[in-house]
Amino acid sequence: MRILVAEDDPVTRRLLQGLLEKWGHEVVATTNGLAAWNILQGENAPQLAVLDWMMPGIDGLEICQRIRERAVAPYIYILLLTGKSEKQDMIAAMDAGADDYIAKPFDSRELRARLRAGERVLNLESELINARETLRKQATHDPLTGLPNRLLFSDRLKNKLEDSRRHNKQLAVLFMDLDHFKVVNDTLGHNVGDMLLMVVGDRLKDCLGDHTTFARMGGDEFTILSEIESPEEASGIAEKILKSLSEAVFVDNREFFVSCSIGISVYPSDGDDVETLVKNADTAMYRAKEKGRNNYQFYVQALNTAAFQRMAMEVSLRKSLERQELVLYYQPKVDLKTGMMLGAEALVRWRHPELGLISPSDFIPLAEDTGLIIPIGEWVIHEACRNNRMWQDAGLPRVEIAVNVAARQLQDANLTQVIQEALIQTGLEPQYLSLEITESTLMHSPDFAAQILSELKDLGIHIALDDFGTGYSSLSYLKRFPLDAVKIDQSFVRDITTDPDDAAIAGAVVAMAHSLKLKAVAEGVETLDQLEFLRSLGCDEMQGFFISRPVPAEEFVYLLEEAKRTSERPVIIAA
Amino acid sequence: MSDNSEKMDAMTGDNIFSFSQSLERMDGDIELLVEIADLLSEDCDRLLPEIREAVNSGSADKLMVSAHTLKGAVSNIVAPAVFQAAYALEMMGRNRDMADAETAYIELEKQVDLLKPMLESISLEDAA
């Protein structure tokens, strides 16, 4: 260890130096307090100091105080050497910041023992610093690539913005997203995906050097921050990145060709805060994707048009699953004759962090257009099965939960497998799951749909035809598909008590359903009159605000508990 | 402790200089003891005239500082008689009571005269 000895008496100084060197330490010796203070403030300062209390210039006590007043500096362990041995002297030494003291004349064994104690303290201190550094690194860096994470990037961007504001400088934020990375993850697994991300991280390091800040924001997204003289300089950086990624990547003995799409926002023209600059670079990145990927685009104000807002919405929707922003609401279905709760329809809602609760009509069309309906649909099926099984395990009534299946899901060859897996993973018996499919969905490719529905029916799952009456309403379809129920669309229910046509259609649907041995279920029942009318038609089940609006899972539990309590005493509808 | 050390202690008398205890303070390092003894000898040569002058001029402050310095230097080895004599003079200076300073100085000089040859006679072979 490097130790400072500050002692004005040459004999004592030499003795200390001789002993410390004999014990393997590197000694820096000085004769006065001022020199000692300078040494302790300099580079490569000793970690431990043996200071004489009484010295010319600054005395040992004052050095202790000065050392401890420093806000940021490595810890120096101070052993105060003193001829004073009164209790109050020792207290004064400790109060001034000395870690330990040794009275003159000292014994070599005592000195050695006190040095060892000091070394132990310094080792602990060093462990603490290392642990703190590790924690800091974990909190600010991506564990996979070792690159700064979103938090650190935002912090650095914030600092750079302050600096740029003061010095009238420009900054570029580049938002980079790998093209088709999901395909790699989905087909070759996350391990290969992770290795690929590491290679991309290394390529960025090689290509951008140490002076550019870049980060992994999550998934396959990276951001780069650079001071620029002009936007052309940002183009240069983007081109460098595109070029560096264009060379083949070898991962797991496979050759990959990776490309990326980059969006660029510039301070001050495209925003003057972290959030806006990153968001606008992200939006510009999507423009690059739209332009065929493997290119870069600057943010332009026009990106805030409806088309690009839709794209931004798509970005958010894409992330909604991983951010766990989707939730299921449940709308109860009851038996029209007994009033007993039979089950519920699961309806997905999106709890958007900025826009609040978004209803399916506002995002399901987008999900269908973009294919996001597949992962969202999978999540809905799994979550509905999971909730239902959880309620059953809690001793609540066993009911059937219905989930809606979109056209694109029905065309997905994996649908049967997805449902099977959900049932197996959650342990839900198939008869407690039903699928609701609209007429128009079946019309997309009726043959394939019939085949898939037969497979699902064979599993023991119930199938209901949704929104009946609004589409083609082909009666032959009712026979062709393995259905269990027909749902009368709410547009016929709304005026059922006043419009004879609606009443006639509803009555015909119920009669037809029964003749085909299907159940008739009415949607959108809001009044007692509607309910009574449907019951008079012989309709089997109903759902609607008259019974309950869709409620979150935690509220649905109360309805199930209520159903359990009143299972032998139907109270929902008076007979 | 070696036979030589014991012989040396017996020769010097513990009151003037304890070779074995002083060597212990050096963590058994005879080379260091030789070096420290040389330095101490030089310190005595430097400080005795300063103390003499302080006594002669009746300067209590100077006496306190120079006697304190000699006491501090000699405390690195075990030489009780010189230590005591220097301490007595330091206290006289501190208390500004110089009445017995002359006598005390003569005692110090006598003890230093006894100690110095012993310090100078320490050689590397003594630890053998």
Overview of this protein structure:
The complex is a heterodimer of chains A (575) and B (128). Chain A is of the alpha/beta class and 575 residues long. Helices cover 50% and strands 21% of the residues of chain A. Chain A has 22 helices and 22 strands. In chain A, the strands form 4 sheets. Chain A has an 8-stranded mixed beta barrel, surrounded by 4 helices. Chain A has a 5-stranded parallel sheet with strand order 2-1-3-4-5, with helices on both faces. A 5-stranded mixed sheet of chain A has the order 7-8-6-11-12, with helices on both faces. Chain B has helices at 3-12, 19-25, 30-57, 60-74, 80-95, 101-121. The mean pLDDT of chain B is 88.
Provide key terms for this protein.
heterodimer, A: 575 residues, alpha/beta, eight-stranded mixed beta barrel, five-stranded parallel beta sheet, 22 helices, 22 strands, 50% helix, 21% strand, elongated, disordered C terminus, B: 128 residues, mainly alpha
The whole-number mean of residue pLDDT values of chain B reads 88
Biggest interface, CB < 8 A: A-B, 18 and 17 residues
Question: What is the number of E strands of chain B?
Answer: 0
Series of H and E elements of chain B: HHHHHH
What's the mean pLDDT score of chain A? 89
Profile the largest sheet of chain B.
Answer: none
Count of alpha and pi helical runs of chain B: 6
Summarize the model shown.
The complex is a heterodimer of chains A (575) and B (128). Chain A is α/β, with parallel strands linked by helices and 575 residues long.
